[in-house]
Every structure is written in C-alpha cells, then in structure tokens.
Amino acid sequence: RAAAAGPSRQGPPGGDIDKYRAAIAAKVRGNLLRPPGLSGNPEAVFEVDQLPSGEVLNVRLKRSSGVPALDEAIERAIRRSSPLPLPDNKNQFERTLELKFRPLADD
C-alpha cells in the first residue's frame, strides 16, 4: 500500500479540509504504482498547480524521496489523478497544493 498525505495547509484542521485532503490522497494513492525493490519508507514532497476544476496544470518535485523511480511514480500518479477532487467548500480551494507521499501507509 502507498500512503499519501493531502495538501498541507497552515492553520487549524477542519472537517471540510480533512475531507478534501483525504479525497485527494485516496485518488492519488489509487494511481500510485510502487517501484519494485523499494526499501524503507522515504517521503517525497510535490507542489501541484491546479485549475478551479481540479485539472492538474503542473507538478513540481519540491523534495526528493532519494529514490528517482519513486519520485517519477508519484509524479505519474498525481498526473493520472487529474482532475483532483474539489473541496465541498469552494473557499477552501487552493490553486497550489503541497502534497507529501510515502510508499507505505503509516498505520
């Protein structure tokens, strides 16, 4: 299994924000193919630009996992997940998201 954290956001967590993060994480996680032979549980951080429709415009690697094959797999999963789920509250939409991913679930 792959673990994906939703968009990072400053401030206190809220129910709608948590649902939004979980929806994005679930969609991307469903598209992530873990590279064979991967050891450990490295984390990669990406910035994703999206349109108000959730369509992914750009994906940038902000911090590498240290495993190029994993970084590439995560980027492909993000792109395949376009359009990303939208928040129930349109005021919580963010054009640029920070997404953190680990190949193994934290639980």
UniProtKB/TrEMBL annotation:
Keyword Ribonucleoprotein assigned: no
| Name this polypeptide is given | Protein TolA
- Look up and give the membrane topology term: Single-pass membrane protein
Record's keyword annotation contains tRNA processing: no
The opening ranks of the lineage are: Bacteria, Pseudomonadati, Pseudomonadota, Betaproteobacteria, Rhodocyclales
Per UniProt, which keywords does this protein have? Membrane, Transmembrane, Transmembrane helix
What are the subcellular locations of this protein?
Membrane
Q: Which Gene3D superfamilies match?
A: 3.30.1150.10
Gene Ontology, cellular component aspect: membrane
